[in-house]
Each structure stands twice: as structure tokens, then as C-alpha cells.
Specification:
The chain contains eight helices and seven strands. The radius of gyration is 25 Å and the shape is elongated. The model is unreliable at 199-203 and 205-215 (pLDDT under 50). It has a five-stranded mixed β-sheet with strand order 3-2-1-4-5. A two-stranded antiparallel sheet has the order 6-7. A hairpin with a 5-residue loop joins strand 2 and strand 3. The protein folds into three domains: 1-73, no CATH class; 76-173, Nucleotidyltransferase, domain 5; 183-214, no CATH class. Helix 5 (129-141) runs parallel beside helix 6 (158-165). By secondary structure, it is an alpha/beta fold. The N and C termini lie far apart (66 Å).
Length: 215
């Protein structure tokens, strides 16, 4: 703590006898969650508050949220979800100095009250039906007894994995994959005519300015 002759110095960012201020912790966690490196966070805090934040301090601050994350990951879920969206999202991450591709298994549920609820996020090297089955089994262990409608993409074996865990669930493919799976049986030279036609097609879409817009 800095000392002055009249003992009237009052730190602004970090109060006396505190290691770090709670508002600063929240900002560091927010910056870390957005992918900023410890060097970027240090430079940012230096510009705003005028003090350095070491890598060890950033690690100590971000480690505080780990128990909350683990608690969120295993929290009990509702017994019934009318609609559940399941999708694997690929993104780039930096690991040990290398840029790797990871798959984020994301499940978004719609509750009986019509509210959206993120049921969980799982990370893996790639997307596969076998991993999805393990994820669905985990949902079942956390209290989910039934799902009315599951909205998925065209991953091979995905419907079978869902039926193995939730046999009464209706599997619905998203409209993009439905169209793709439909036109693959149509000769390439007539696909554009099938999709757009002269004015409107069976999907209620018309082509304007080189793009397809749903009416």
C-alpha cells in the first residue's frame, strides 16, 4: 500500500488492505472469457487503471469461477423439455502454442414455460453420433425424462443415438438440411429450377437479386 506524509492517500482501483477489487475481477474474467491473452489483459488494465496484472494474478482470479462452472455443468434439469436443439459448433482454439479445431456440443432447450435454457456445453475433437449419445445419457442422469421434439442437423447416426436414449422423441431436421437432402436426388441441371422455379417454389421462396428469400 503506498504511503504518503499526511496518510490521506486513498487508492481508487484497489482499496487499502485488498489484493484486488471485485469489479476489477469481473472485468478480468470478462476479458479472459472473450479470448484475450494475459498480456492483452495486462496492457488493458495498465491503460485503464494504471497498474500491472501478472499472469499468476489472472490465473488466481479466473480459477475462482471454476467451482461455479462445475456446479453449473452438473446442475439438475427439468423432467420434460418440449423442444431441444442439438448442434455441434466448430471453432479455433490456441493450445500449447498451436491452433486446433474443437467441436462444441451445444444443447439449447425450450422449457414448458417457453423460456430458453442452455442445458450444457461439451468439448471434443470432432462431432460424432457416439459422443452425442454420451451427452444425451448425461442429460438423462441429470433428470431429463422425456423430450418431445429434437431439432438436429444431418449428422449420420444422430437420429438413432437420440432414439436409443429418448425413444419417444420426434427427430426433426432443420430446414436447410431438409432442402439439401431433397435436392441431392434431383439432377444438377434441374436443381435451380426446382428451388426457384419461374416465380415461387414449393417452399414459398423467390429469387431476387441472386438470393433466395422465404416469403
Amino acid at each position: 500500500m503506498p504511503r504518503d506524509r499526511n496518510a490521506d492517500f486513498e487508492p481508487v482501483a484497489v482499496k487499502k488492505y485488498e489484493t484486488v477489487e471485485s469489479g476489477v475481477e469481473e472485468k478480468i474474467i470478462s476479458m479472459y472469457a472473450k479470448g484475450m491473452t494475459t498480456r492483452d489483459i495486462n496492457a488493458h488494465m495498465q491503460d485503464i487503471y494504471g497498474f500491472d496484472v501478472s499472469s499468476s494474478m489472472i490465473s488466481a482470479i479466473t480459477d475462482k469461477v471454476q467451482p461455479l462452472v462445475r456446479e453449473w455443468q452438473v446442475r439438475p434439469l427439468n423432467a420434460l423439455y418440449p423442444i431441444v436443439y442439438l448442434d455441434g459448433i466448430f471453432f479455433k482454439v490456441r493450445s500449447e502454442g498451436k491452433i486446433l479445431t474443437k467441436c462444441s456440443y451445444t444443447i439449447l432447450g425450450i422449457t414448458q414455460d417457453g423460456m430458453k435454457e442452455l442445458l450444457g456445453i461439451w468439448l471434443a475433437e470432432s462431432e460424432g453420433a457416439k459422443f452425442w449419445m454420451g451427452v444425451l445419457n448425461e442429460l438423462q442422469n441429470r433428470g431429463v425424462k422425456d423430450i418431445l421434439i429434437t431439432c438436429v442437423d444431418g449428422l449420420a447416426g444422430f437420429p438413432d443415438a437420440i432414439k436409443a436414449v429418448f425413444p419417444n422423441a420426434e427427430v426433426q431436421q432443420c430446414i436447410v438440411h431438409q432442402v439439401r437432402n431433397t435436392i441431392k436426388y434431383i439432377p444438377p441441371q434441374t436443381q435451380e429450377t426446382f428451388l426457384y422455379g419461374s416465380q415461387k417454389n414449393i417452399f414459398g421462396a423467390d429469387r431476387r437479386g441472386g438470393s433466395c428469400r422465404l416469403g
